[in-house]
Write a structure and sequence with these properties.
7-stranded mixed β-sheet, 2 domains, 18% strand, Rossmann fold, 6-stranded mixed β-sheet, 42% helix
Length: 364
């Protein structure tokens, strides 16, 4: 099992066992622009407390500046339909590379198509857009994420004295590349350890509302006799813990997400662990890849994009920079704060959280 503590929470690209994709001929650099940003970025949401505002955006700004690239970062404000319009504006502004962290597959695919029709290569950030046909992907390795998530839930359940018993899986969409790869990794970890999957549901569109409703039915059908729940995203984990609180349930919950909200749930004991992919490492990787693309450096591109992700929607193998996520348990939170991946002020801002931070030795 992977260590939960001293890894430093700095993700790094992982070598893939698959053959290195021949990517350099596939990307044609657009004609140089006299003015305007070199790179355009479309992010999904900058609402208060969002990881994108508090963590990813500053990390991206620093990473592109360190690479000497001007960047124009736009925010869709939680409205997926704004993605294509923002992409069109960035293309018109003369960007040479577009980076898309899609809020949903349909709007993300449209934004990608707009850029590619203008001869501009696209990097999918953090989540591969299904049927999007992006030129590259930079984000967490879903196979590694699934493995760590399954192993982490095992640790949580065993620490609570549950060596076996029924569990529930709240998976991502059945047609989503990341969700499928994660499930293929965590399911055998849990079943081979002797735990019975009492209920398993694939949640369309990663919707927390749908996930919460599905989990509520799972809990009822299991007569509340579950010892653990695996949730495949930050939003789904939030929905699961909300249902459990309403039903006075205290069982092991494993989730995924770099958001301050996920880390705060771990702090409060509502969630046993989360998986965190360093926004700093993700930003550094996407900035390095964009630089190589703009420079037409095929060797650098191939050296960075050593893995592939096969898009479940199109069957296209996308050259990828795959990052290693880190499991975060309550005992790791002080290290996460020290690494600057969440501020103590944000983590400890609620009254219950403030008390928990004091108990955990995290000072504001």
């Amino acid at each position: 099992m992977a260590s939960s503590g001293s890894a430093g929470f700095v993700a790094s690209p992982q070598a893939s066992s698959e053959p290195t994709a021949q990517v350099s001929p596939a990307v044609a650099s657009p004609a140089p622009q006299a003015q305007g940003p070199a790179v355009g970025v479309v992010l999904p949401d900058a609402a208060a407390g969002s990881r994108w505002r508090d963590l990813d955006r500053p990390a991206l700004e620093r990473a592109f500046a360190e690479n000497g690239l001007a960047v124009d970062i736009r925010d869709a404000g939680g409205v997926p339909s704004r993605f294509p319009a923002l992409a069109r504006e960035l293309v018109a502004g003369g960007v040479k590379v577009l980076v898309v962290a899609s809020a949903d597959d349909a709007s993300g695919a449209e934004a990608i198509s707009i850029a590619q029709q203008a001869g501009i290569p696209v990097i999918d950030l953090d989540h591969l857009t299904s049927a999007g046909r992006a030129n590259f992907f930079v984000g967490p390795d879903p196979g590694a994420s699934g493995q760590l998530l399954g192993e982490g839930l095992l640790r949580c359940m065993r620490e609570r004295g549950n060596e076996n018993g029924p569990i529930a899986l709240v998976n991502g969409p059945a047609d989503d590349t990341t969700a499928v790869a994660m499930k293929q990794a965590y399911l055998p970890v849990l079943t081979s350890a002797g735990y019975l999957v009492r209920a398993s549901e694939d949640v369309p569109g990663w919707s927390p509302a749908s996930g919460g409703a599905l989990f509520e039915r799972m809990l009822t059908m299991a007569n509340s006799d579950l010892v653990g729940v695996l949730a495949a995203s930050d939003g789904l984990a939030a929905a699961v813990t909300s249902v459990l609180k309403r039903n006075d349930g205290m069982i092991s919950v494993a989730g995924v997400g770099s958001s301050p909200a996920a880390l705060q749930r771990v702090l409060l004991g509502e969630q046993c662990l989360t998986l965190l992919t360093s926004p700093v490492a993700e930003a550094a990787a996407v900035a390095s890849l964009a630089t190589a693309i703009i420079n037409g450096d095929g060797g650098a591109i191939a050296g960075l994009a050593t893995g592939t992700m096969t898009d479940a929607g199109s069957g296209v193998a996308v050259p990828s920079v795959l990052l290693q996520p880190q499991p975060v348990f309550a005992s790791d939170l002080a290290t996460v704060v020290e690494a600057g991946l969440v501020s103590a002020a944000v983590l400890c801002q609620a009254p219950r959280a403030a008390d928990a931070c004091v108990a955990a030795g995290i000072s504001r």
